[in-house]
Amino acid sequence: MNLITSKDNPRLKTIRRLSQDSQAYRKLGLVWLEGDHLCRAALARGVKPELAVFTESLWLAAEFEWAQCATDIAVVPDALFTSLSALESPAKMGFLMALPVSPALDPQAATAVLDRLQDAGNVGAILRSASAFGFKQIVALKGSAGLWSPKVLRAGMGAHFGLNLLESANLDDLLALQVPLVGTDVHAGPFLHEWVHQAKLPQRCAWVFGHEGQGVSPELMARVQLKFRISQPGGEESLNVATAAAICLHASATAR
Q: Is residue 90 predicted with pLDDT exceeding 90?
């Protein structure tokens, strides 16, 4: 265990940059996980962080529990840890880990395709739904929020570590998929729940979810093989994309 008391420590500077810059993980090849929940989720999936950082108060209370969690362990004063965090209520621990290598696209995998989604909360929520409903592959097209950015990590609540995450993909990359592309259209197509009831929804597919304001691009929508409407008896014009994604992914899980 190393005690660090200087805010100018090089590793703390790296963590501070990762926590405050949503694109820093791509430049540095490192990911910062802040908080007990994310750290435990990573360990449960076999992640071995390069560095674990604890506040003095937490380390004093839980040294025995965390002593073997990382290759290196650093303890910092509570006030110094606060300077590392972008949270209103900073956690008391975090892991620094290498950015996972992007896997090759699995042509047969149940997949969620993110088309230029901008809101980190939406992206993280979709990752949680995908993990919960058995969609193990996420393909984020160029222009989507960074999958390993701090806000997406927090919204994902640990789902990242059970998913194959492909970033900065382009439309032609989707040609390798051997499962049908499926999407939603508020104006046309059969109702999703009817196809689920009739057992006509493909058991394995790639759901496409588009930009919060613009929706799925025309170029990608032209490749979508099945389009559905989500029943909205309350009369709202549209649903939040993360809400719509949860409904669609659950429908596919039910079909399987």
A: no
